[in-house]
Every structure is written in structure tokens, then in C-alpha cells.
Amino acid sequence: MRRRVSWLLVSILLLLPLAGVTPAASQGKPFDGVTVNVLTFTGPQIAEPLQRRGPDFGKLTGAKINVITVPFSDLYQKVLTDVATGTNSYQAFVFDPQWMADFVTPGYLEELTSRVNADKALQWTDIMPFFRNFSATYGGKIYTVPLDGDFQMVYYRTDLLQQAGLKPPQTWADYFKIAQTFNKKDLNGDGTPDFGSCIAKKRNAQSYWMVWSVAAGYLQAKGTREGSFFDADTMKPLTNNEAFAEALRVYVQTGQYGPPDELNWDVGDSRSGFVTGRCALSIDWGDIGPLAVDPKTSKVQDKVGAVILPGSPRVLDRKTGKLVACTVQKCPYSTGGVNHAPFAAYGGWSGAINKAAPAKVKDAAYAFLSYMSQPAQSSTDVTIGITGFNPYRRAHFTNLAPWLKSGMSAAAAKNYLGAISASLNSANMVLDLRIPQNQRYQQIVLDTAIAKMLAKELNIDQAMKEITDGWEAITNELGRDTQLKAYRESLGIPTK
Amino acid sequence: MSKAVDRPGAEEIPSAPGARRIKTGAGLGAARLRAAADWPARQVTTSFVLPAVLLLFFLSIFPLLVSAYLSLTRFQFVPGGFALRWVGLANYGKLLVGIEQSHFLGVPKPPTVVGWLLFGLAASVLLLFAVRGITSASGRRGVVGRAAFAVVAGAGIWLAVRTLTPGGFPGTLLTTLIYVVVGIIVQYWLAFLCAQEVAGRRFFRVVFLLPMMITPVGIAYTFRILMDLGKGPFAPVWRALGLAEVSWANYAWGARLVVMLGDIWQWTPFMFIVLLAALESLPAELIEAAMVDGASRWQLFWRISWPQLIPVTSTLILIRMIEAFKIIDLPNVLTNGGPGTATESLTLHAFMAWRTLDIGGSAAVAYMLLFVVTFAALSYVNLAHRRLAEAA
User: Where in this chain does the entry annotate a coiled-coil region (chain A) (predicted)?
Assistant: First the structure.
């Protein structure tokens, strides 16, 4: 009896591989037996669509997609230590295109220009120019495939504003008026007081982009090429002047209308707070729009509006460091005397390929990234809140059908896409910082000083000094000329 | 008369000088032969120890040396890879006198009257301690050791007084020391209480051991949920108390307290289990005899149990102190080091620098931690541990 069982087991073991391999082999899929390890951040956003579509891609091509996730704050070093040490355990990365300066210079990323040009299914020109030319390109060469479009906007409750006869905020003064009106009122009918404004302010998360969304309108007025982080001639930080002080004052004041533990809120908390009806206003990327549609979690279905980031009627005079009133000369792109500077924070999650991966694996990795970005997949993914992917193709803006299918009303979809379009088409759009070791400038110096200011460890003047001194020290460490050259290139200004 | 000498095979024989030399030479040859024959046996010890030594070298000493080198360099990306540029002590300078000073050492303010009094008291005690080293027969090493301890401890107390003054702010160095000192005192006290003879002791023993079996990040997330005063389980209680507008996350000491609560909950079982083992190993005869003599519960503890527990207690504190300096998981998950930098420990400080590939800066923080731990451990061993063990 025992011998018979053994024979049976051996036979099953011998037949099992045949059962798994033979059908696929007979179909001759292009990437049979190829495994691609894709590294990205702990989901559910971003990882979810990759994990969900990986098996679909596998069925089509035979490739196996492993999605490995790490916390957002670890992603940068995880990618770089993997490639710099020659471990090369990941063949593709879905990360922040802002980091490209650090990834491309040492030659860690595969150049994708020829692949993209030869890939008709990708419909490259359908991707909006900003994401094609800034997020995907470095030094005139393509290194990433955009999978997401990122702009920060202000979200508001349409029902509340309508009841109170208020208009969406155009300036930060408007923002405060709305926040004050609804703060400590029950906004979702659960019997407990809610909040006028909810902004993610947790340290070492993704909050350092929020403060720049407030500051951008004060610092940059003469178009995208002017830049908002440094003086493009001297590389001196624009963080110790009256305009930045005013922006910090505004940022601190938002806390008066926020939840008591706002300093410990990350973007997950602020999104959850808004869609559960606890907040009248919030600053976020395009995620709240699709998240508010989900009937399982949202209490604000069809009650959400989005608007370009509020601006300022006064801007920085770079010669004097003073805050001066907008004029036609000083704010050529202003609307009604208000200077809007929509912040392309982060630049949108993008996929890149490890140059050291074997050729066949690189082919499979590129095919997967292209598959994820193609309109057939991405048009649906950008309408699902949990994906974290926001519109970045023309098709996403012009074709309303997927949005309506997701449960968004036509009016809400137009409002949401209109706010992103207004940001995307602004001639005064603010580009995120893309110079070597920008992580140290933003995630360490800026984030820490802002967190200390919010915690009252520093006052506004001390915070400005700490940021300025910290940025100057890093610039001096890494070489002012090198950093200036990279900064000018990121803004599209020819190097002197 | 023959005279034995220490060297084997070199027995002195009263004879002609030449004969003596021959005899000694023959003895030496035999000894060499015996030594050669014994060589494999002697190498057995070395060959057993060698793998462990090599492993220790590669896993501990080698990284220690490499990280010392890294702390003197700056990591930069260059075409084709990366480069480590020698910067000398610049990374340490940044922490002690540069842009990272307020982060590492804190923001000092002039001391208040109370601060001056406390510092004066501490300085007097340290001075007395150093002078006693000179007057007592503790040797040159003892004097230097006492003087070094007095200087470093005095500087630490001065830093604490100035950064804990209203308007000032402690840096990651002092925050870590607060975690260590407060944590160990409370943990020991709780563990001692738990180890007493109480009803349901077996049940509590199991319950109290549970935190040790949970991963530290799991504990941190549990405390994060528990301490969420907006949505957490205690939110209704908080609201009922009229404290809905107050959050620990906004206050430096509130956030530190929450981190310490988590740490105490996590580590008390370790103290408890060791103390319990020590208590159970105490001879019952002594206690029974004291009880017969009419000793009170306090006298039983103070006169009988405590002196026998001192060696265990001392070792326990030493182990826990070295471990406590490395706290990272709780502040990282609970507060990300916030509000501001209020809950950031030295390890988290180093980890955050490492995340942005400021490898030199990160290694410098790690080395500063190593210096502090070494100083604290050596001081504790020399000043407290040995004396307590000897007294016991």
C-alpha cells in the first residue's frame, strides 16, 4: 500500500511541472519564465494597480510581476542602495521622478527613448506635455514612463459652500473665511463637531509638499522658469524673506481650524477625514476626487469640489526680499490681481528600469510599464481612488465615460478635471525641486524645520533661518556650480 | 645538589661546564620534540575559537571600522556610480557646532534660578566625587576616571539644565537619555511589583509576558491606534472629559510620554521575568527565619530580599540600559519623531539621515551614540555595578 502511494506521489510530482509549463510554452508568450521584481511604496495606493494588473499582464505575456513594497520614506534609499551596491534585486521601480538627478547621473537607469519612440501602443503624445517633458525626461532623454499625474489642489464641500453662499477659495484669506465658517460645526451628521481645514502635517511623511503649495503663490509670479526654491542666478534659497514668512504664517494659521492632532496626520488621515465628511477644506493631490465616489467609505459623494491652489495678491520682490502688491509687471499671469502658482508636487509616480537587469527582463519590465500606462488600462485606473493614480493623459481629460462609470456625476467630473487642467495649463505652474540630493533639502531640512515650527520649537524667523542655513550648507557641500546647473536645467534655463 | 629551574628539560647538573651545556641542549631538543608533538593538540583550542572570532570580526568589528571611516566621508553620486569624499571631522562638527547642533544637542536657554540651583548641587556632588578620587587610594587610573566622569556628567547636566529651561528644547541626545533613565526606573519598579506574591500570579505572569512576544512595530501600531484621540477606542472618554480639543501629539512632553508608555509596556516583562527568576531562587529559609523573628513585610524586603537581588538588578539595568539607548521603532511609528523633533531618539536621527543617503552624517550620529553608550556603560560598571555586586 505504502509503495503504491509513493508511486502515485512521484507521478504527480513529475506531471505537475508539465501541467504548469506546457500550455504556456505551446502558446509561445514573449516573456515566458521571465520574472520582474518591481519596487514601489507600501500601498494600497500605487501598489494596488500594479498588483492587480500584474497577473493580467502575466496572462498576456507570460511574465511574472512581483510587486515589492516599502514605506514611502524608505523608497529613495532602498532603490539607491540596491543599485549602488550591485545587488540589483529589483528590475523596475515605480517612484518619484524628482529623484532622477540622483538615479541618472551614476547611470543606474535604463534610457527608454528608443523604446518609447518605437512603442505605438503607449501613445506617448497622448501624455500631457508636462509629464512627458519634465517628469519622464532628464537631460533630453526619456528615463521613465508616467503612470500618474500630480498637482496639489484645494478640495471643498460643494454642499456646504452652497448653503453658506460662499465661493471656492481664490486666496488664502478666502480659505480662512470658509474654514472659520465651518470649523467646530457638525459637517457629517454624526453629532460631533468637525473641522474647517484638514491638512496632512505629520513629519517625515509627505507633508513638506503641503507647505510649498501655500508658499508657491507668494514666491513665483513670472512663470514656470522663474522657479520657486532658489534664485536661478545665485542658487541662494528663497526662504528668508517677507513672502516666505507670510506663507509660513498662513500655513501655521490653517492649524487653528484643523483637528487637534493635525500634526500627527499624514495624507491617509486627511483623505479619510475629508471623505468621511469631517473636513470642509483640504489640500491634496488628485486623490480625494475619486476616493469621494466610493459608496463604501464616502459620506460626501457628489459633494466634493476642487479648485486650483489659492493664490496671493502680494508676491516676493526678489531684489528687496519684500512682499509687494501684484501689478501687471510683477504678476503677468495673475487673475483678478491674484497670483496663482499651482504646485506640481512630486511630479507623478513614474516607472523606470534598472540598467543592470538582463536584457530580456528589461524588455518585460518596459512592456509592463507601457501596459500600465496605455489608455486602455490607465483610463480606468485614474478613476479608482485606491490606485493613487491621477489623470495625466489627454484621454483622461477628454473622455468622461470612465469617470461616469466610476460613479462620479458629470458635474463633479468636470469640476475635478477642470481644477487639474487649470493647474496643468497654468503658465505659472511651479515645478518641484529636481536637483542632486533634493531629498536632503526637502525631506530632511525643510520637513524638520517646518515640523519644529508647527510644534513651536522654532518661531517663523528661526524656521526660515534654519531652512536657509541648511540648504546653503548642502549646496556648499555638493558644489554650488553643480547644483545651480542642475536647478537651471530643471527649469529649462540654459546654463551660463 | 641539583637545582630545579623553570624551563623544562634544563635541569642543572653539577658537572663540567661543557657536559652541562650538552645535557641542557639534549633536554631542549626533547622539549622541542614534545612541543612539536603537542602542537596539534594546542591548536585545537584556537581552531575552535577561530570561527567565532572571524565571524565576530566580519559581522561586528569590520562594520565598526568601516562605519568609522564612513563618518569621516561624504557620499556623492558621480557618473558611473558613487564616491566617498574624505571630509575629516566635518560630519561631527555639523552635529556639535554646525547646522545640526540644535537637532542633536537642542536649543539652550539661560538657566532659571531653579536651574542654577540644580546645576550647582550636581556640580558640587561631582566635584566632591572627583576630589574623593584624589584623596582616596584609588590609583592614577581611578583619579583620571573619576575626573573624566565628573567633567562629562557635568557637561551633560549643564546641557540638560539649559535645554530643559522654558524656551529651550532638548535635542535627540537628551531625549534618548530621558527615555533610558525614566524608562528603566519605571520598568524596574513595575516589574518588582509584578513579581510579588499576589493572587492570580500565574495568570498575570502569562499576561505580562505577552508584550515580549509581539514585534516592536506591532506594539507601536497598537499604541498609535490606542492613542488616536479622534478615532481610537478612548476617543469617547476623551470627549466626555471635555478634552476633544487637546491632543498629546501637539505637545512635546505629551508625545514623549506616549512613546515612553509604549516602551515601558514593551520592556517591563523583560525586567519582570528576570526579577521573578531571581526572587524564586532566593532561599526560603532566610525569609521563614525572619518571619519567625517577627520581621515586617518591609523588613523582609529591605533586609532579606533586596541585598540578594542587588547583583541581578545591577546586571539587569546594565543590559536594559544598553538596549534602551537604541530605541527607534516606537518613535518612528508613533510620531515619526514629532512634534518637531521632540520624540526623536539618536537611532532615529541616524536612520533619517541614512534614508536620504547622508551616510556620513548618519554614521557620525551612530558613533556619537556609541560614545554615549560606552561612557554610560563604563561609568555604570565602575561606579555602581561592581560596588553593588561586592556589597551583596
Answer: none
